């Protein structure tokens, strides 16, 4: 630690997968952003499951573990808080973090509804703290390049696009009926899990949505109940013939949306897509070409640009250090980055916003916009047909 470094006390609420990813990002921040004048102290972690607390303390050396997140917020050593607890807790915890005067790094989708995301946005605004939301696919250097190519006219005027997030994490029909599958604790299933990212990527590249029509489906309607006393997190399997319960939220959503600039976008997300593992992709067509990106080959784009219209070649572009923050991680194009790296980039933006007082990166307003689009999808699929996506408040 240099004498000029500002010491930042880190608190984490929810020591599951993303809690771990957030702490790992803090641990690696200086490796990639040595110019940021901060030293992180892992002050406290909160989780309702004792083994999760013990694991986080052993792995990351948190000074204190709290069973109740409210105690973490009362700890004066904590300056910034990661909220990586399940979605249904985001509103209460997010509002409380801001009211405690601490900066907030909160995972998407920020609650279960537009009202939840707005409540957290309002609390952050009223407290004058910084708030960053975990829409980390924006941080991928190739996504930044794709956005620049589209904005710079490389493919002409954008006409139509496709954003898909297809995965198999809930595909096994014996996966236990955990919190993930109920409306009260899991919200709208794949909408909050994956479509929240799809909407954010669409907005990041093509701007706000104006209208949409959607259809949703539940393909695995019954799942084995969680046995008495068993962990309710993760993706553990039950047995064939075990007592089952009803899945209350969406496995699949497909939407056709029109952006405010007139681009037609097809969004498709599934949590039960057998054979698909993290197939997260953006494809934008324009009057003169095409540019596309797939998370599984996150350092490259496919680009077709020119004036041939027909039989116009599509080339593979390995993005280099001119794109986003790639140069913070790798010396040049063709060197793979990881999922975790996107979180380090997101964290760097959060830290810069804390130091400067100026918002940077995905904000609470983006969580509100995403939640509004998801809510429009739910209303449309329930029979409303084409629905307007509300304009963001000024
Ligand atoms: N940005 C991304 O790419 C991404 C990816 C996965 C998950 N997420 C989001 O991160 C959040 C967490 O997801 P996850 O996959 O890490 O889930 P997880 O189930 O692995 O972890 C959640 C943790 O929260 C803890 N928890 C539950 N109730 C609590 C309480 N009252 N107080 C404190 N802790 C409590 C659980 O014990 C568990 O350890 C969700 O909002 C999810 O949508 C984001």
UniProtKB/TrEMBL annotation:
Protein name (record): Dehydrogenase
Sequence ranges assigned to domain GFO/IDH/MocA-like oxidoreductase in this UniProt record: 144-290
Residues crossing the lipid bilayer are none
Q: Which species is this UniProt entry from?
A: Nocardioides marmoribigeumensis
Per UniProt, the keywords (alphabetical) are: Oxidoreductase
Q: Which domain of life is it from?
A: Bacteria
Q: Which residues form the Gfo/Idh/MocA-like oxidoreductase N-terminal domain?
A: 8-135
